[in-house]
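Journal club prep, shared notes

We agreed each person brings one worked example of a sequence with its structure written out as tokens. Mine is Tetraacyldisaccharide 4'-kinase. I'm keeping it raw so we can talk through how to read the token line rather than staring at a rendered picture. Sequence first:
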Amino acid sequence: MKFLRYILFPIVPIYFVVTWTRNILYDFGWKKSKSYKLPIICVGNLSVGGTGKSPMIEYLIRLLKTDFTLATLSRGYKRESSGFKLANNSDSAKSIGDEPFQFYNKFGQDILVSVDANRQHGIESLKDLNVKPEIILLDDAFQHRKVKAGFNILLTTYNNLYCFDMVLPTGNLREPRSGAKRANIIVVTKCPVSITEQEKERIVSKLKPTNKQLVFFSTISYSNKVFSIDKELEVSLLRHFTLVTGIANANPLVDYLKTKGLEFKHFNFKDHHVFTEKEVDDLSDFECIVTTEKDFMRLKSERKLQNKLYYLPIEISIDRAEVFNNLVLDYVKN
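Then the structure, token by token:
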């Protein structure tokens, strides 16, 4: 795969010019972005996947859901439905996508969870509901310039900062690095717990934020327990289990489990992998399976796995959380 990316390097300048030109057209108003009166917060990235958008959306949900009527709007990647859809009790990962289904499973009683590939249409559909949202969280919409979000949170991972990357197909960036200037906040995600202030300063100097941008750093915190549909188990009690992942970057999870001295086999699939019947049959031969919460959304309906399938929840911690929270709340209120 890496070799193929290097072969495709001649396409990089073409991709760069096309995406740069598109941004210029929007920046100067030659292509129109639609603004809205209600607060719209966009969480996104410059690179393709794996920056921790879902944990950030969940962080914002926890911050805002008590005081506001809140909605999430996602594309619903690889879902079997189309158009606008508001999640309900009959939905699954197949009908709305794994990440929106994860939001609905956790917060469905407190928020509105919706999907629509056309973000403008999705926002208008939410505004037409009887119970209208006071805030909309746009999931993975940084490149959707047809909507002008009032507040943009840009994520980049500690081990793959966008400032050291290049655009597709050789690199991982969806657009040139200059697109980062649209962000109100930049969050460096998946940082080691031991990151020092000197290291943070070094990273900020490399990212070169504008005078109006603040940079924050977040770390992943794993639960001490894994959960099935109706059971829970201490991570320390896991013995000779099988790890199954279908996410962009499973390395932090693998490293965490290894630090616990656990022994396991690892089956690593591509991000948003749709498991075939044969793959489910093969997995059913194992006595205990641990997966991510996102993968659990796709696998939990498989009867062959229900008595052996567990997921490990994660949350994020943000440095200077009070400052971060106040920036979001100030935008929402003002």
